[in-house]
Amino acid sequence: MSIPVYPQLHAAAFNHPAIDNHAHPLLAAAHRDALPFEGLISEAEGDSLTQDAVHTLACFRATAELRPLFGLGESATWDDIKAARARVDYTELCKRCMEPTGIQCILIDDGLGGVKDLAQDYKAHDQFTPSPTKRIVRVEIVAEVSIPRSICSVRPHLGSDTLDVVPILDAFVEQLSASLKKSAVDPEVVGFKSIVCYRTGLDVSTISSPASLKFSLLDMFKMYQDKGSIRLARKALNDQVVRITLEIAGKHDKPVQFHTGLGDNDITLVLSSPSRLQPIIRAYPQTKMVLLHSSYPYTREAGYLTAVYPNVYLDFGEVFPFVSGAGQRSIIRQVLELAPTNKIMWSTDGHWWPESYYLGTMQARQALYDVLKEVVDAQEATESQAVGIVENALFHTANKLYRLGLVIDTL
């Protein structure tokens, strides 16, 4: 094996322990085949996932990188990968994928749809890492629980023919605030996450009129009456949830993650740019905000926000393995164009399949090394400075931001 041109950078990129600052639970063994495996390499759905995603460079690369994991030769196809993994005991599969990653700690958003029925508990992931797993609380899920509770607590005290939602709105704000405050002081919870990007877009208003809030809640009220459940997707109410979260998070020094950019077809792409969060970023300067998923394809906008607002951080996750290798390197270059290197963090966005953690780590480490090697080659930074960038991005920035208090595991 040849000696790397920059051995210190190589060692940091490929071996330094990492904090996965945003991920989701793995499927439980009983449900290992509950979802199409193609979700490993694409956010698409339906035919776009099962028929088209397998023809992407991301899939070709994933196939090549998973072959050695299952002892397969160079001619093995994507279907061969699927057949091989099916023959491996699930516990062994998880260990085989997780052990090489060097992940020391995972921060898990366990509010992803389907988790309750299909996935392992977040604490079950402790078996894969030296440091215990921590939670990220998805606030829209908390709100969707709070609204029915508010309706049930207030409705009996209203006339049978009234549709006055003001008492319900007041009860909702009180219930949501109480739940979020409880999470804010829970040592297992290190941050919050909003998926307002999916629901109504990132152009969150700094204020909602009382009338718009009433109409939004009235829609929720009718949905609950008709279906017995709700999906929070009314702009005034969604924006209110974000504002309440930012206020409480700021007071308790808990970061708030925002889904930005890359996602499935439920997103309105033009409303997923982090630049649309600028009014909220200004309005809550005391609250630290993390822009998830490299904000792809709006990475430069995200880098700008981290450069000019002290409370904004950028996560460069999910693009591993969804984007081609060349695309991944381009994204990291765009991150580094403007973003302060002490404000960028890595994550896998691992979910469902253990291979998502494996590929999300290995590809990120490779891309970091490739790009920073170019930077050192161009004499735009020293090898020592490049090493610092890697170590901050993989570990130190997340450790400080989420107040994890971790010591690097050297085993």
Short summary:
With 411 residues, the protein is of the alpha/beta class. The protein has 17 helices and eight strands.
Give the number of domains.
Answer: 1
Q: Helical content, roughly? A: 40-55%
Strand/helix succession: HEHHHHEHEHHEHHHEHEHEHHEHH
Biggest sheet: strands side by side, in what order?
Answer: 1-2-3-4-5-6-7-8
Q: CATH class, anyone?
A: Alpha Beta
Structural class: alpha/beta
Strand residue percentage: 5-15%
CATH level-two architecture: Alpha-Beta Barrel
Number of strands: 8
Q: Kindly, what is the distance between the CA atoms of the first and last residues, rounded to a whole number of angstroms?
A: 24 Å
Mean pLDDT: 94
Largest sheet: 8 strands, parallel
- CATH homolog superfamily: Metal-dependent hydrolases
CATH topology: TIM Barrel
Rg computed from alpha carbons, rounded to a whole number of angstroms: 22 Å
Shape: globular
Name the poorly predicted regions. Answer: none
GO molecular function, one term: hydrolase activity
InterPro entries: Amidohydro-rel, Metal_Hydrolase
Protein name: Amidohydrolase-domain-containing protein
Keywords: Hydrolase
